[in-house]
Amino acid sequence: MRKRIIAGLVLVLGVGIAFVAAGMKRDPSGDGHIRWQHLTSKQGDLEAPNSGNQQTASLVLDIDGDGRNDFVIEERTAAPAVVWYRRSKDGWTKHVVEAGPLHIEAGGAFADIDGDGDLDIVFGGDASSSQVWWWENPYPQYEPNTPWTRREIKNSGPTKHHDQIFGDFDGDGRLELAYWNQRARHLYLAPIPADPKQTQPWPATAIYTSESESEGLAATDIDGDGKTDIVGGGRWFKHAGGVSFTPHLIDDAQRFSRAAAGQLNQGGRPEVVFVVGDGVGRLKWYGWTGEDWVGHDLLGMDVVHGHSLQVTDVDGDGNLDIFCAEMGKWTEKAAAADNPQAKLWVFFGDGKGNFKKEEVATGYGNHESRVADLDGDGDLDILGKPYNWDTPRLDIWLRK
Predict the structure, then answer these.
(1) What is the DSSP letter of 322?
(2) Exposed, middle or buried: residue 356 (CB in 10 Å: 0-12, 13-18, 19+)?
(3) Average predicted confidence (pLDDT) for the chain
(4) How many whole angstroms separate alpha carbon 255 and alpha carbon 275?
(5) What would the mean pLDDT of 157-177 be, rounded to a whole number?
(6) Rounded CA gap, 47 and 186, in Å?
(7) Which residues span the domain enclosing 249?
(8) N or C end of the chain, less CB within 10 A?
(9) Model-level pTM greater than 0.85?
């Protein structure tokens, strides 16, 4: 059996690119160091996921093992609920993962769950569902209209499972799945079973109970002890032995937020970034002083439904940057956008805790958008996914 690939959720992020009329605009920094080619399903550059209008989740990963990233899109009002886009030399071919409709919430994660050397995917049910599922990657047998096998990780109890992430959080050399169950107000930890194909549901332990619903998950070694810690809900969680984890407060105002982490200021502990994803609040990065976490407001104003967030090296200079984008629409019954001037920013870091803000687009809806190398050329591209604004829709910006 091939060794399990340890891979987790690439936390939510988003970006868009500003255009003038139908043409492409240089990046606002003025130095032209990033240029983009815009592709969109609205113009037939790639297929729309399905006919639904609530696109809740996305993942970017190498599904077929060819060394190039593919991506997964989920939509919860129509079939097929889950599709993946297989990258080829000339573009993407849409394949079915889940052929029927399924009430899936935002979030998602991936790992080699069954130990066969390819990456499997996980999504959780929304407020109408008590379930969390995983789908077995059928490598190498990929047929566009043949769905993957779906199995249950959780199948009872309270509903709503917004965010999941894999990691070795207890230091035993094996992967666990951490996931929020919002209506239970619990953060759960579920080790991958020895035989996941025959184990439904997975045994899970509630490692934290919140006073109200929490969300957001990231993974990093906060205290430098060699173990991967969990970040989310305005806190970080340290393994204290067995199935016990100790919560450490960072900022309770960021309880219901998106989360990301990385070494933004070289030396010392990694920094943490929070922004409210389903509401209005500040985008802040937090640094450890040795005694407390201190927040740094990146914008000086509120972010409106900043449901896309990522820490990554956007410009390839060796320093981590912060990517954040706002939703354009979230009200289900309204036809018009809630936030028609939705903004997308990148904060270029210098590795010393300083950032240069760039507003790279206005008027694109982003929800669980992601930054990754989508065309296999070694630099970062943008997968743009709105929630319910002008959907079904996908946008891709390829870096040139």
Answers:
(1) E
(2) exposed
(3) 92
(4) 10
(5) 99
(6) 37
(7) 19-399
(8) N
(9) yes
The 8-class DSSP code of residue 270 comes to P
Residue 253 belongs to a domain with what CATH number?
Answer: 2.130.10.130
- What would the pLDDT profile of 374-384 be if each residue is shown by its tens digit? 999 999 998 99
What does the block give as tokens for 203? 């045994």
The three-point CA angle 242-248-252 to 5° equals: 135
The rounded distance, in Å, linking the Cα atoms of 359 and 324 is: 10
Tens digits of per-residue pLDDT, 220-237? 999 999 999 999 999 999
CB atoms near residue 152 (< 10 Å): 15
Average pLDDT over residues 111-136: 99
From the number of C-beta atoms within 10 Å of its C-beta (0-12, 13-18, 19+), residue 65 rates as middle
**What's the full length of the chain, in residues?**
400
For residues 282 and 275, is the Cβ–Cβ distance under 8 A?
yes
Q: Determine, yes or no, domain membership for 3.
A: no
Other beta carbons less than 10 A from residue 42's beta carbon: 13
The predicted-structure confidence for 309-363, as pLDDT tens digits, reads as follows 999 999 999 999 999 999 999 999 999 999 999 998 889 999 999 999 988 778 9
Q: Is residue 12 a part of any domain in this protein?
A: no
